[in-house]
Amino acid sequence: MLLKNLKPVSNAHKGEETVNIRVEDGKVIEIGSDLEAQKGEETHNFDGAYVSPGWMDMHIHLREPGYEHKETITTGCDAAAFGGFTAVACMPNTNPPIHTRDVVEYITKKAENLAVDVHPIACVTKDRAGKSIAEMADMQEGGAVAFSDDGDPVADSQVMRVALEYSSMLNAPIINHEEDLALSRPGHMNEGKVATRLGLDGTPGIAEEVMIARDIMLADYTGGHIHVAHISTRNAVDLVRQAKKKGINVTTEVCAHHFDLTDEEIDRQNFDTNFKMHPPLRTQDDVDAMIEGLVDGTIDVICTDHAPHAIEEKEVEFIYAPNGIIGLETAWSITNQQLYKTGKLDLQQLMDKLVYNPRNILNLDVPEIKEGADANLTFFNTDEEWTFDAKNVRSKSKNSPYLDKKLKGRAVGIYNKGQLVLNEIRN
Predict the structure, then answer these.
(1) pLDDT tens-digit profile of 311-336?
(2) N vs C: which end of the chain shows fewer Cβ within 10 Å?
(3) Are 86 and 115 within one domain?
(4) Are 277 and 382 in a shared domain?
């Protein structure tokens, strides 16, 4: 197969040259500006789109097993491919949770023939109950790449200490949902002026920051690797920034919606539950801090926390709706609009957040664009305008704050595991 008229972007390519790429049996065979199609060879012309090593989202919810009415491994991977991701790491708040090796292997088996690589993140504790450590080493041997009780924090400090000690032996991060539940509940949005004006119970930023501060101190004490999930406040970013300066083994991620939207949207959108997530949308100052953290390297990864919910679950009063939104299909457009088009980060810097850092944190092989390498590629543009309407949702659920919004820039396809997936806009 010949993939024509592509501009490579990677650590070694700035997206300034146009090349053709020949792939065969899942491998990059040739790269060159003058490659011509051979007799009988399938060709695809990408009209000057960019190509990068395949993107990875290291924080999504596939819902299977147990909640297949929201999402399945197959539909979640369809959404990932549409968003330009060739790899995802899925969180363990399923039913049963990913707390035993057989569940880890069930997920990897279900995904083995899909174009998107699926890497399970296993539970820190049995049943995600926060009491006793799960069989972490056994699950790692079965394919788990990290450990988390995401959806809930590991609240017990001694349990987290032991988990971090194990993480240092296993060379795998502990990803904590950073939330002090006593401070945060029963909040339904960010605690602040907007929540007061709307008469809603709020979740203060300090509920996130207190837990992050504890985890940084425990990581320093144990030598373990703590990865801060879905960071959302200015003070939280400052805590991570200072910890990194001290050499503490801490990394972090931010969701695309947390460097784009603020809590004012809940008022503007008349309590639309597709703007309800956790951590909640914060203030403009917090959004600015997320961008600052991405620019200076404090924030390592851009993710989505893709969290599908069925229509009937979200179409209720705001205080009764579950937290969470889908995000795989729109992440690049938001990233492009907020970071690239504004000149905050260039394409190579964005690839650090989307390609290299997530895999390095999870100790996974990083794809490259070079002859002889496995062909693991994302094709994308930065100028195409399109509408993310219901017809273009590949997820099984449609709980997105960007539904029916005009966006700029999209992923036009992926190539991985010998499979080419081209993303057509449905009109």
Answers:
(1) 999 999 999 999 999 999 999 999 99
(2) C
(3) yes
(4) no
Count: domains in the chain: 2
Nearest to 64 by CA among 126, 118, 134: 118
Contact 90, 62 (CB under 8 A): yes
Domain span including residue 149: 55-361
Same-domain pairing of 347 and 307: yes
CB-based burial label for 405 (10 Å; 0-12, 13-18, 19+): middle
Q: Phi-psi category of 34—alpha, beta or left, where left has phi over 0 and alpha has psi -120 to 50?
A: alpha
Q: Which of 305, 365, 374, 383 is catalytic?
A: 305
- Known catalytic residue: 296? no
Q: Is 414 a domain residue? A: yes
Three-state DSSP at 183 gives helix
Question: Who contacts 362 (Cβ-Cβ below 8 Å, separation ≥6)?
Answer: 58, 89, 119, 145, 146, 172, 173
Yes or no: say if 252 and 301 are a contact pair by the CB < 8 Å rule.
yes
pTM over 0.90: yes
Same domain, 333 and 401: no
Residues 406, 319 within the same domain: no
